[in-house]
UniProtKB/TrEMBL annotation:
Keyword annotations from UniProtKB, A to Z: ATP-binding, Kinase, Nucleotide-binding, Transferase
CDD domains on file: TPK
Domain Thiamin pyrophosphokinase thiamin-binding: 197-265
Transmembrane spans: none
Organism of origin: Trachymyrmex septentrionalis
Biological processes, Gene Ontology terms: thiamine diphosphate biosynthetic process; thiamine metabolic process
Name of this protein: Thiamin pyrophosphokinase 1
Lineage: Eukaryota, Metazoa, Ecdysozoa, Arthropoda, Hexapoda
Annotated GO MF terms: ATP binding; kinase activity; thiamine binding; thiamine diphosphokinase activity
NCBIfam families from the UniProt entry: thi_PPkinase (TIGR01378)
Nucleotide-binding listed as a keyword: yes
Amino acid sequence: MGHVTSDRTMQELTSGDSTTWNPLDVFQNSARGIEYAVIVLNRRIHWQHNVLLRFWQKARITVTVDGGTQRWLKYLEEHGIDVLNTEHKHYAPDLITGDMDSCPPYIVEKFESIRSTVIKTPDQDNTDYTKALLEVAHYAKTHNINLGEIYVLAETSGRFDHIIANVNTLYRSDKLVGDIRVIQLASNSMTWILKPGMHSIHIPEILIQQKSWCGLLPFGCTVNCISTTGLKWNLNKTTMQFGGLISTSNTYEDSKVTVNTDTPVIWTMGIEFLERV
């Protein structure tokens, strides 16, 4: 089945029983009518500044997590932005969270002196990412923000255990933030959970033209029955599990992909070309 491997061979809108996803929306200049938060984890930041800074400014809640605070400050400095300048104070995060073991205190104090609220979360039973989601949900509730989405900047390179921990947090997100959608963004990919049911994912034309990659991954448990349309290698009431069949290195045949799944499943897609739109 093409690049479906086997040992045998970003806006979400609900209409009826179908959930529609428009991944390009996150990159568009126009207001989408959805309030969102941005979380910067302790990972390298590879984004083009004209994309990321605009995205940051439009967020209702901005958060840096522990060492992500230092990385964000470095990113700003690399692009000539001095957050101590009154004109640039909006680049200071609303919240700084984490157990603060990966960020020099003077950096935290610098942001705090501008406008940031610092919330130390020393609980070692949860990752800083998990705790940040809880704090964002609490902040939105106490500030009467009707938050629809949380975008988490997390590159997918580096330590494998960190990558898997981030995926685990995605699977836990509904218990942490309720109906707020959590989408992980890397500079070259976008990843989120498809809950049981029918989903329609609208694919930007440039990704079809460039034969950009996508995948469906059954982390944690077997996906007993999953069907797709619009992919080069579709699934038809297929069972997916690690050690068996999974769908990787797939691509698109249509501008709309449908996924009907009986089990939560990871959807991941390349977005390298979206920055050109």
